[in-house]
Amino acid sequence: MRLNDLALHYVARFATSAAKLADYLRRKLRERGWEGDGDPAIAALVERFVEAGYVDDLAYARAKSGSLLRRGYGQRRVSQALGQAGIAEELREDVRAGPSEQRAAAFALAKKRRFGPFSAAPPDRPLREKQLAAMLRAGHPLDLARGVLGAATIEAAEAWAEEECE
Fold this sequence. Notes:
This protein has about 170 residues and is mainly alpha-helical.
């Protein structure tokens, strides 16, 4: 299978960034070997795919960021995931979640994991600290994690999530 065919097959199946496509092609060349003349032109092939619109880092970043936020991850984890995918810093800033989106993500994680007001019984101090640590590991800032976990009721958490931030 030719390098162009491998790349085309990959971008047809997966949303990807230019860096992820280049990494994929390098990995396939290591696994299968290269039988062509000279070095493979991976950078030129990736650039051609970018110019053709098969690979769009900004669209990938928007989709990945939105997906992670809906799953309850915080902005720090979203930025890390985009960085690992080879998305440039300026594109990561372009898709950075606003305060209301960050609150919605914290709310979504608390609801999904049954933290704070969503737990069956009011959490004691050790459980609350574990929940806070999980929120921080998910990439949420301390003030947002405390805000959603400190809500007394589900309605209070919903109101907190819908508050306007400055």
